[in-house]
Write a structure and sequence with these properties.
Length: 423
């Protein structure tokens, strides 16, 4: 596969076809498609055209080898929800997973999950209606199973992958139970926040007698970049996602599971979710020179301190006239870079979030860090180092944490996630 047809292609959308020649998502949110290209709109390929296709019509295929929402170029908005089963019946779990799988496919195609306006005046609408007429908006829905789903309640212990266990306690954490764990999760990403919210709301609603919501995070701006995307900024004002995984070869090597003690995990991945609170007032009072040292990069350009342009390769060995390395050894990028971690990489897919203000009037905001990797140990290795010595720690607190096994994509309509568990 060529570099143009990189990570995004592996969830079923050819990036070359999808973006067309020189296509880009404009600031206005419209997907411009070059004359030679077409766009995946609704469920069909559109003919070549000169006029921009509105991003509202963008639709990613739901069925495929991998779930969408992983290698998919990150959309602008996120609704993440973690759920606990309230029912202890395996049949109820099976029912939820079957209902969700079908509804997820419908919503990703821009459809409702049933009538929003039934003909009978006495009928309660099946779909809540707030996304009617808005189009699919590039919606992806990604489902994960938490370690607790495989406890004694549903008799699923024999299906639990050996790698799926709660993350170990690490330095730099002040975890709150209200943002931690969950039996199931849904990551909803879209170019419109209401479409993402509608999807999660309706999934929760159709399973309300079997599951309850445990915690949720609304992400209002992507803080990572996929292939062919500009690099966005996190709430500290720095470009985030510059050296993210974008190539299909890296996805195969670091993200997609090829071997597992559980056959049902092949083609899947592990999702780490970390709600990271930023001490924004403290950061905003910091000098720019220190901000550069903390990340090891410049602020506006996002260049490594050893280079000039954003995508210059950092030189972690280069020394200044004082004999110290130009990129501090305890800067965020020096600690996290694959060059300094035996080649370990992960796919970052995080979002900026805000919860308004806290009870003493400080801004309550930060990074909802999401990463996909074939083995949770990739995250643990990096976070153990970052938690122990990252200069950034003065300005952040990890307050939420969860690990989920993300099964592979569904091959076709009629199949459902977790089907293997129920014989
Ligand atoms: C609020 C918390 C965090 C902030 C604000 C943050 C911000 C940044 C920024 C600005 C960069 C440089 C640009 C880039 O290459 O993307 C970066 C790089 C990176 N971050 Fe973070 N990050 C945070 C948490 C984490 C965590 C928890 C991990 C993993 C455990 C992580 C892993 C990485 C990696 C692997 C890189 C690429 C380093 C390289 O290869 O140069 N980050 N981060």
């Amino acid at each position: 596969m060529s570099s143009e047809e990189s990570a995004g292609a592996s969830d079923g959308v050819s990036r070359r076809r999808f973006f067309g020649a020189g296509a880009a998502v404009s600031a206005a949110g419209a997907l411009a498609v070059g004359a030679a290209g077409g766009a995946i709109a609704a469920t069909a390929l559109r003919p070549a055209q000169d006029t921009p296709t509105p991003v509202s019509e963008l639709s990613y295929p739901f069925y495929g080898d991998h779930q969408a929402g992983i290698s998919t170029p990150p959309q602008d908005h996120l609704v993440f929800m973690s759920f606990d089963m309230t029912s202890k019946s395996a049949t109820d779990l099976q029912l939820v997973l079957a209902k969700w799988s079908a509804a997820m496919a419908q919503m990703c195609a821009g459809q409702t999950v049933g009538s929003a306006e039934p003909a009978r005046e006495q009928a309660v609408p099946v779909d809540t209606g707030e996304a009617v007429g808005m189009g699919p908006q590039g919606l992806t829905l990604t489902l994960g199973f938490g370690p607790s789903l495989f406890d004694e309640r549903f008799g699923l212990a024999k299906f639990k992958p050996a790698l799926l266990k709660d993350l170990p306690a690490m330095a730099g954490e002040s975890l709150q139970a209200g943002y931690t764990g969950g039996d199931l999760c849904i990551q909803a990403c879209a170019y419109d926040p209401q479409v993402a919210y509608h999807a999660v709301r309706n999934l929760a609603r159709m399973a309300r007698t079997q599951v309850k919501t445990r915690w949720t995070v609304l992400g209002f701006g992507r803080a990572s970049a996929g292939a062919n995307q500009s690099t966005p900024r996190n709430l500290m004002g720095f470009k985030d996602g510059t050296r993210n995984i974008t190539q299909a070869e890296d996805m195969d090597q670091h993200v997609w599971i090829a071997d597992s003690d559980q056959d049902w995990m092949v083609g899947g991945s592990y999702l780490v979710a970390r709600k990271i609170h930023m001490l924004i007032e403290t950061w905003d009072a910091d000098q720019i020179g220190d901000q550069h040292t903390v990340f090891g990069r410049s602020k506006e350009e996002g260049a490594p301190l050893t280079g000039k342009a954003e995508h210059d390769v950092p030189d972690f060995a280069a020394k200044g006239s004082d004999g110290a390395t130009i990129i501090a050894a305890d800067s965020h990028v020096a600690l996290a870079a694959h060059e300094n971690n035996g080649g370990v990489k992960l796919l970052r897919r995080g979002y900026n979030f805000t919860d308004g203000i806290d009870d003493v009037g400080r801004l309550d905001a930060g990074l909802f860090f999401l990463s996909f990797q074939k083995d949770p140990e990739q995250f643990i290795k990096l976070q153990s180092k970052l938690g122990a010595s990252d200069r950034l720690n003065e300005y952040i607190r990890h307050v939420g944490s969860a690990l989920f096994a993300v099964p592979p994509g569904l091959p076709e309509a009629g199949k459902y996630f977790g089907q293997e568990f129920f014989g």
